[in-house]
Structure formats: C-alpha cells, structure tokens
What we know:
Number of strands: 9
Helix content: 40-55%
Shape: globular
Strand order of the largest sheet: 2-1-6
Amino acid sequence: MGEDEARALLARPDADYRDVVRPYLTAADITDDPGQRPSRWVIDFGQMALERAMKYSGAIAIVKERVKPERETNADAGFRRDWWLFGRPRVEMREALDSLGRFVAIGAHVKRYASCWAEPWTLASNAVMIAAADDDYSMGILLSRAHEAWAWARSSTLKGDLRYTPSTAFVTFPFPDPVSPDARAKVAAASSALYARRTALCAEHQIGLTKLYNLMDEGGFADLKRLHLALDRAVVAAYGWPESAAQDGAEVVRLLTERNQEIVEGRRPYAPF
C-alpha cells in the first residue's frame, strides 16, 4: 500500500487506524533510504478476531477486495479461514517486541551487511531479520566488524549478496560473555556515537547506507571510519581479545569460531541475555 492510501486511512475519523495501518520496512529501505525509513505500508490486524477487525471498516474493505479472493483459493486451510490475518504472523516475535521502545532491523538479502533501529509501529518484511533489543550495547555488537565478518563467514550468498538468517548468522554468533560493566558501557558509547554520525551523514548527503559505506571504503567519511574502528576495538576488548583483531576479519572469525566451539561443547558458561 502506498503512502497516500495509508495516510487517507489514518485520517479517517471512524476508528484509530494507527492500530492496524503500519509502515512496512524492507531490506532495500535499510540499505537505500537516507533515513532507513519504510517506503511502503501494510494493513495488519495482528491476532484480532474478525468482529473486532470489522470496526476498522476502511481497512477491512481493502483486505476483502484485494486479499480475500486470493485466500479463498489457497491450499492452506488456515489461510482460507483467517483471510483477514497474516498467514504467518510470527506471534513470538510480536510478543518479544511488545515492551521495547525500538528494535534492531537487519537486512536479510543485501549486497553488504546493514542494520538500523526501527520504531515499534514498524512491521518488518520477511526480508528483514529482527533482534529484540533496544540498547546501544546490543546494537554496537551487531554493528561491529566482528558480527559482520561472522555473518559473511556463516551465511550463504546469492549472486554475491549476503543472505543473513537467524539460524546461521545470529544464533551461532557468540556474544561477549561475561562482560564487565565498563566494557559494556564503552561498546554502548561507541555504538551511539557511530550511529548518530552515520545518521547525520546519510541525511546531509541524502544517500543510503550502501552508498555511504561504498564511499567510506573509497576514502570518504574518515571520521565515520574512525568511529567504526573505535567500536570494533571496544567490542574485541569486551571479548578480552587483542586490539589487533579489531580490523582483521579472518582473525576475528577464527576467535569467534573457537568461542562458539567452547560454548557448544559446554566448556564455557554462556548466558549473554
């Protein structure tokens, strides 16, 4: 659904359509939009019973017209029965995000790894992976070279693009644990500073993350590069590893693999969350 149609629904006085009309974030939005803003909108009734969904008459009319005919021919009985609901609403994800003021969104099919903050109102597409975290420390770990290198090492690719999945890139990734309060604070501070500068540069130059980082790799935005180095150093310090590993992708993957093996084999206690 486009912006104009969504705004028209949101402006209707017969119900609070913000309950069921939501921005829809795609991987392309994360990589290409200067503000990592959703470019599309979606009608989402969550787990509402039909009688409650009918109270949003403008929204249910659109779903009846555009979705119900297709659902009536779907081979899945649940899709046919609950035609007004998402076929796979990811209830566990919704519950995990319910109390958060923001969450981490990660592009699943991208030319280069990219993550951003998203607002609770936003609904992510199936090409966006979600981390149920709202703190700068967690974002810092996920923004770091350590996690990016791990994602490329563990994930499959399609025509050279990263295919980030929770099972390969996130669940297997060993977060620092234990972490001292000082180390956690340093990662959080570095993460916040980097994210703020990245946001400002995208807005100033009206470019998305892919173009921003392509330019950084070519020699531009030296201050952003220094902020990334500061974050990477803070992250490897949180693991207790030498600073030299901060920008050595192969070495950090080797260290992460060793840590992962220690955890899997029960030789290291692990409860980072």
